[in-house]
Design goal:
binds guanosine-5'-triphosphate, 12 helices, Rossmann fold, OB fold (Dihydrolipoamide Acetyltransferase, E2P), binds magnesium ion, binds zinc ion, about 350 residues, single chain
Length: about 350
């Protein structure tokens, strides 16, 4: 296998030196480009192969987290002239994006592995700031750099765009506005993309993830649905995750829209996402200040003084509570379940009082 071909998929020596050890065992490295129900698609940059796990691999798998996901680097043994492969192992992941399954059991669903940037998409006419913060926390927690993409900018009037810009300024993060239908902004995004880095498209169903990918590919390679007649908003289409290389060298993972993000561990992610808020906390009177009711809370003061946006503060508290709650053990949770409800009410009252 030519190492330059696998580099096209984002491989570098940091991931794993292409060792003679592998060659001795007739193994080589490939990247998972698609996950299907009972099999995988892997690529080594030249050949795309249907792949399955070894019996040993399956036997040793304890949870979903041990299974290959899109973006994973795996060692494989190729057969039948590179049409079929057996996956032996997963190489250590640099990043892993996962969400908690809905329902009670603490089981994760893997979204993608070894991603460098997360492109969080939101439609210009229906921006959900709470969801945005969630995505940012999730990505920051996973050490993946978030990029905010506002899609369907064509649905807004000049005036509405102006208003949107002022709303977005409170996010304290960079964003890019695009329209897939009037070919606006996609060039600008294109220029920002770095070759051999892996980008993951994220956002609710119908925001235009696949349309954007098609625009970047300059091709209608992937199917999107016709615009829904009533409201012109379209419907969801993508059914499986896929990894695709652009001509420019950047690597993209398309995702089916997620209905929800679930809960997640967000301690570190919170700190990065809400740094502008948390930077005030060093001045809080109490070290364990919850920033909800304490006297001498510097964050509450900053909200009152208009230094911190009220809605942004709301999101922060909401996600912080979720994170604290998530980190409790199951028994603790049961006990605190009631208390949690009360805390939420308390906090609503505080917001009302402002
Ligand atoms: N007005 C407008 N419509 C768009 C734009 N981009 C995409 N659409 C439409 O929105 C619908 C959904 O687009 P998709 O690209 O399939 O959305 P998606 O995010 O991939 O959806 P899932 O695959 O379900 O997650 C389609 O009908 C598109 O034509 C845009 O910039 N402006
Ligand atoms: Mg799609
Ligand atoms: Zn405080």
């Amino acid at each position: 296998m030519e190492s330059k071909d696998i580099r096209k998929l984002g491989f570098n020596e940091k991931i794993q030196p292409l060792s003679t050890e592998l060659m001795k065992n007739e193994l080589s490295i490939a990247r998972v480009i698609e996950v299907n129900k009972n099999s995988y698609m892997v690529s080594n940059g030249i050949h795309e192969m249907i792949a399955e796990l070894t019996g040993k691999f399956m036997f040793e798998t304890k949870s979903a987290i041990d299974l290959p996901t899109v973006g994973d680097w795996v060692t494989i043994q190729a057969f039948d002239n590179f049409t079929f492969a057996i996956i032996h192992s997963i190489l250590p992941r640099s990043t892993l994006l996962k969400r908690k399954e809905s329902g009670k059991r603490i089981e994760f669903q893997l979204i993608a592995a070894n991603i460098d940037f997360g492109l969080v998409m939101q439609p210009a006419d229906q921006i959900n700031f709470n969801l945005l913060d969630r995505y940012f926390v999730l990505l920051n927690e996973s050490k993946i750099e978030p990029i905010l993409v506002i899609s369907k900018i064509d649905l807004l009037s000049e005036k509405q765009i102006e208003f949107l810009m002022s709303e977005l300024s409170r996010l304290k993060s960079q964003y890019i506005t695009i329209s897939n239908t009037i070919d606006k902004g996609t060039d600008k995004l294109s220029q920002k993309l770095i070759p051999y880095k892996t980008y993951c498209l994220l956002g609710k169903s119908g925001v235009g993830k696949t349309s954007l990918l098609n625009a970047l590919l300059n091709d209608k390679a992937f199917k999107i649905n016709e615009i829904r007649e009533k409201d012109g908003r379209g419907r969801h289409t993508t059914v499986r995750r896929q990894l695709i290389c652009l001509n420019s060298g950047s690597i993209f993972i398309d995702n089916p829209g997620m209905r929800e993000l679930g809960n997640f561990e967000i301690e570190a992610g919170l700190e990065i996402t809400f740094n502008d808020i948390l930077s005030h906390s060093s001045k809080c009177r109490f070290k364990d200040c919850s920033h909800t009711h304490e006297s001498g809370c510097a964050i509450l003061k900053a909200v009152k003084d208009g230094e911190i946006d009220k809605d942004r503060y709301s999101n922060f508290i909401k996600l912080k509570k979720e994170s604290d709650f998530y980190e409790m053990s199951f028994l603790e949770k049961k006990k605190k379940d009631k208390l949690f409800g009360k805390m939420k009410q308390n906090y609503k009252k505080i917001i009302r009082d402002f």
